[in-house]
Amino acid sequence: MSALTFPQALWQSLWQPLPIYQELKTRKGLSWIPFVLIMVAFCLVQTLYFNNVDWAWYQSQMLEPTLQSMPSKDRATVLAEMTMGRMLTAQLSIGLLGMLVANALMAFYLAKMTLVDDDNVQGFGDWFGLTWWCNLVVLVPSLVALVWVLFSSGEISPGAMSPLSLNRVLDLPVGHAGMGLAEALSLVLPWKIWLYYSGIRAWTRIAQGQALLIAALPAVVVYGCWGLFLLF
User: Fold this and answer.
1) What is the pTM of this model?
2) Which position among 106, 137, 164, 174 has the lowest Cβ density within 10 Å, counted as fewest Cβ atoms?
3) Residuewise pLDDT in 10s, the chain (232 residues)
């Protein structure tokens, strides 16, 4: 960044994103920094958790309840195969791939929705880069999770990896129909929507109300449909 060092730019992008995003519009190739930070933070949290948790406790409390429909002899075999290493590998693979796919879908959505601005020249690659800047907000719960897990051992709830999810407030147990939605809904979601709104405003001439609608619509649709599915 011209006037700021990268650490300052990363920090300012969370609180005063507009000038940072405006500069990113003309400066390409800078999105690898938030990309690496987000991916590394995710891997650190997952690795620390699975290396610190009491695995026997995790199997009995977190894995076994999900296998209740299996015959007991098959359940024991499956549990024995669910080693810590395999679970960690699965979590890392699913999590990293999930972030890539989610950001790619968001970038495709933004590239299409912002075509309403005739002067918009930003393509899929540009918006894909911006998604990583907008997702820097996930570093906040990641840092909280790192501290939580680092100073814990034994019977550590998986909730330690998502300390700012709605389920930390609701405390829905494993097996509850709404647990997945409550875990997925983060308390920093409004912050992320605001960052997307700021990005749209910085890169296009789209009006405030329309920009806010574009920024919020994916979350409203995804979580709204999820909630309706649970209700009906």
Assistant:
1) 0.92
2) 174
3) 555 577 888 899 999 999 999 999 988 888 999 999 999 999 999 999 999 999 999 988 888 887 877 877 777 888 888 899 999 999 999 999 999 999 999 999 999 999 999 999 999 999 999 999 999 999 999 999 999 999 988 899 999 999 999 999 999 987 788 999 999 999 999 999 999 999 999 999 999 999 999 999 999 999 999 999 999 8
Handedness of CA 161, 38, 115, 117 (dihedral sign): positive
Residue 226 one-letter amino acid: W
Do 3 and 181 contact (CB within 8 A), yes or no?
no
Q: In whole angstroms, give the CA distance from residue 51 to residue 88.
A: 9
